[in-house]
């Protein structure tokens, strides 16, 4: 399953976390410094109202097709991983199918998944290639900032907006990828946007604000994240899942060129680095500092930002692992590169 | 788990005022230094000292740091 290109289109606005949080932490400047240190995020790329994941995805797809000189008519599958679609119906994949002018024999479907979504999407793309597809175009991204309450200082400093595009093609692959995908729905409350679906439709009641013990303001229509639950889940499941995958492959962490983890926050990355016992330099995270937590576009943003130069020139043995909402987590071992296109770029309105 | 070593590491994580100390009887949620970021660090610190995880549900049952240390078993 050769991956030939990966690109990430980021939200067009660059917001400084220090500037943005000054108002939210005005009563406690030390708290501001601690938030900045624990997130490790200097700036976040934000999509303003009116710019959606579909728009970012279209820009990413067009950029990728142009850079690789790929004929859209040759795309057999269009997969769109997102939790922030334009509509409940129809799905983003169908809308993008139209925008890109793809042929009628292209299958198009959305996958509702978050921070593990790129790995999940890649596994499904791989399965389609194995089943006979020639090319799969995988989109993965979200505009999580648009789901947050402006005065939720627990989540607002974390999230940026972006959508990635990955081109997967049939061909000889001396190092086929290996996947390990997991779920635990019992943890569904840890990260949740309670209202807006059919269980709790939007109403006057879902617009009512509440303030938690830490002063974070949210409505039921906003994304709610329980940081303690997320940390507990990540440290419980992620290191073991990564070790299981390596054992399955008969490989060790030392043999990898890099470990590309979902860019949740500096604090979470540091804890995983500690538990895995790997050098910090082996876990790239510049993308986190520059873009923020990009949900399912997070891993592609690291590939296109931190590892871009290397992946243009040579192949790297990588372990990529995403974890988050669901709860859901997934890891893959793959040999990637040299790629025709591996970059990030901001959306132009 | 060594409670005193645990307290010492916890003290290094929070901004204590001059003369302020953390003891086992400290009702941590009422302390001026307590917030959600300290809570995240506390879970990590517990795991480092106890060799096992402290779940958020278990932490919610604790009132003092003595209660937290007792969760180590």
Brief sketch in words of this structure:
The complex is a heterodimer of chains A (349) and B (73). Chain A is an alpha/beta fold.
Care to describe what's here?
The complex is a heterodimer of chains A (349) and B (73). By secondary structure, chain A is α/β, with parallel strands linked by helices. Chain A has one domain (1-349): 3-Layer(aba) Sandwich (Peroxisomal Thiolase, Chain A, domain 1). Helix content of chain A is 31%, strand content 25%. Chain A is built from ten helices and 16 strands. Chain B is mainly alpha-helical and 73 residues long. Chain B has a single domain (3-15, 22-70), classed as Orthogonal Bundle (Non-ribosomal Peptide Synthetase Peptidyl Carrier Protein, Chain A). Helix content of chain B is 52%, strand content 0%. Chain B has four helices and no strands. In chain B, helix 1 (3-13) runs antiparallel to helix 2. The termini of chain B are close together. Classes of the chains: A alpha/beta (349), B mainly alpha (73). At the A-B interface, helix 2 and helix 6 of A face helix 2 of B.
Strand composition percent of chain B: under 5%
Tally of helical segments of chain B: 4
Instruction: Tell me the CATH topology of chain B.
Output: Non-ribosomal Peptide Synthetase Peptidyl Carrier Protein, Chain A
List the quaternary state of the chains: heterodimer
Mean of pLDDT of chain A: 95
Q: CATH first level of chain A: which class?
A: Alpha Beta
Name given to the CATH architecture of chain B: Orthogonal Bundle
Distance between the termini of chain B: 8 Å
Main pleated-sheet profile of chain B: none
Binned strand content of chain A: 15-25%
Pattern of helices and strands of chain B: HHHH
Low-confidence stretches of chain B: none
How large is the radius of gyration of chain B? 11 Å
Shape summary of chain B: globular
Order of helices and strands of chain A: EEHHEHEHEHEEEEEEEHEHHHHEEE
> Might you state the CATH topology name of chain A?
Peroxisomal Thiolase, Chain A, domain 1
Total separate domains of chain B? 1
Tell me which CATH architecture of chain A applies here: 3-Layer(aba) Sandwich
| Cross-sheet strand order for the largest sheet of chain A | 5-4-6-7-1-16
Strand element count of chain B: 0
Distance between the termini of chain A: 34 Å
């Amino acid at each position: 399953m050769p991956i030939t290109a990966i690109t990430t289109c980021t939200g067009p606005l660059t917001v400084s976390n220090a500037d943005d949080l000054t108002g939210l932490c005005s009563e406690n400047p030390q708290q501001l410094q601690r938030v900045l240190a624990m997130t490790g995020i200097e700036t976040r790329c934000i999509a303003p109202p009116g710019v959606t994941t579909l728009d970012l995805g279209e820009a990413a797809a067009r950029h990728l097709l142009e850079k690789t000189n790929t004929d859209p008519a040759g795309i057999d599958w269009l997969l769109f991983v997102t939790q922030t679609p334009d509509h409940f119906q129809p799905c983003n994949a169908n809308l993008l199918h139209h925008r890109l002018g793809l042929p009628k024999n292209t299958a198009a479907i959305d996958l509702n998944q978050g921070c593990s979504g790129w790995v999940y999407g890649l596994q499904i793309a791989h399965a389609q290639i194995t089943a006979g597809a020639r090319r799969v175009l995988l989109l993965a991204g979200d505009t999580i900032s648009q789901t947050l309450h402006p005065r939720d200082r627990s989540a607002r400093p974390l999230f940026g907006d972006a959508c990635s595009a990955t081109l997967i093609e049939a061909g000889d692959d001396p190092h086929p990828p290996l996947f390990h995908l997991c779920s635990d729905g019992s943890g569904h409350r840890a990260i949740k946007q309670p209202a807006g679906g059919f269980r709790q439709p939007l109403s006057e009641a879902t617009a009512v604000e509440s303030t938690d013990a830490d002063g974070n303001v949210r409505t039921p229509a906003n994304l709610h994240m329980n940081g303690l639950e997320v940390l507990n889940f990540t440290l419980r499941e992620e290191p073991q899942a990564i070790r299981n995958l390596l054992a399955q492959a008969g490989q060790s962490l030392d043999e990898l060129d890099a470990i590309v983890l979902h860019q949740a926050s500096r604090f979470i990355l540091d804890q995983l680095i500690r538990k895995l016992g790997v050098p910090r330099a082996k876990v790239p995270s510049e993308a986190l500092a520059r873009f923020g937590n990009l949900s399912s576009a997070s891993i592609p943003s690291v590939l296109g930002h931190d590892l871009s130069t290397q992946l243009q020139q040579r192949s790297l043995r990588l372990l990529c692992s995403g974890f988050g909402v669901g709860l859901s987590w997934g890891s893959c071992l793959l040999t990637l590169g040299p790629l025709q296109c591996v970059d990030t770029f901001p959306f132009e309105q | 788990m060594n409670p005193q070593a645990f307290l010492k590491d916890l003290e290094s994580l929070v901004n204590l005022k001059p003369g302020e100390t953390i003891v086992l009887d400290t009702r941590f949620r009422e302390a001026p230094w307590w917030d959600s970021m300290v809570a995240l660090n506390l879970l990590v610190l517990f795991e480092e000292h106890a060799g096992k995880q402290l779940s958020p549900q278990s932490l919610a049952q604790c009132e003092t740091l003595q209660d937290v240390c007792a969760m180590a078993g």
